[in-house]
Amino acid sequence: DGGITQSPKYLFRKEGQNVTLSCEQNLNHDAMYWYRQDPGQGLRLIYYSQIVNDFQKGDIAEGYSVSREKKESFPLTVTSAQKNPTAFYLCASSIDRNNEQFFGPGTRLTVL
Amino acid sequence: GQQVMQIPQYQHVQEGEDFTTYCNSSTTLSNIQWYKQRPGGHPVFLIQLVKSGEVKKQKRLTFQFGEAKKNSSLHITATQTTDVGTYFCAVSGGSYIPTFGRGTSLIVHP
Fold it and tell me: Residue B94: is its pLDDT beyond 80?
C-alpha cells in the first residue's frame, strides 16, 4: 500500500525545545517538500529536496532544518529559533518538481 | 519563486448554485495544478493543465488554462455539500518548483 506518512498527528512541546517531525514515503519519489499551513495563509514552503543528500530553502526556512539521507525519508526539525512554531505541517512528495504532489496527513504542532 | 493570486478567499453558496475560483499570475506558467483540501484534511491533487487554452472536465468540475498561460479557473456546477473545502492552485514556470495560491474556501449551505 503506497503512500506518504507523517507522525505523530498531534504534537505538543514546550517553548525552547527542538522537535523533529517525521515524513516517510514509499512511492519511490525523488522530490519531497515541507509546508507550513496557518489559517488563511495557504501553503508556505519551508524546504524542498529534489534528490537524496540535496535540499534547498523555501520561502520560510528560518528556524527550521532538514536532512535527506535516504530517498524515503525527509524529517523536519523545528528549532527553538522559530518564533511562532505552532502550526499545521504538511509533507509532500512527487516524481519531480513538475508533477503532482502527494501529501501526508499532516502534523499539528502546538508549542506551549 | 512564482507569485500567484487566487480569488476569492471565501465563497458562500447555496447548494445547487455554481462556484468559480480564479488563479492569476503575472508571468507565463509552465503548468498549473489544482488541489482540494477538505476541512481537517490534507490537500489532494485534482488535475494538472499544461497546454494553452486547455479545458478539462471531471464530472461537475471544469478546469481552464488561459490562452496566455497566465491564469486558470476552476468551476463547479450545481454545488453539493460534498464540495465543501479549500481549493488551491499551484503554479510553476521554468525552473521554479510549484508555488501554491492562498486558496479559496468554499462553504455550501444546504
Answer: no
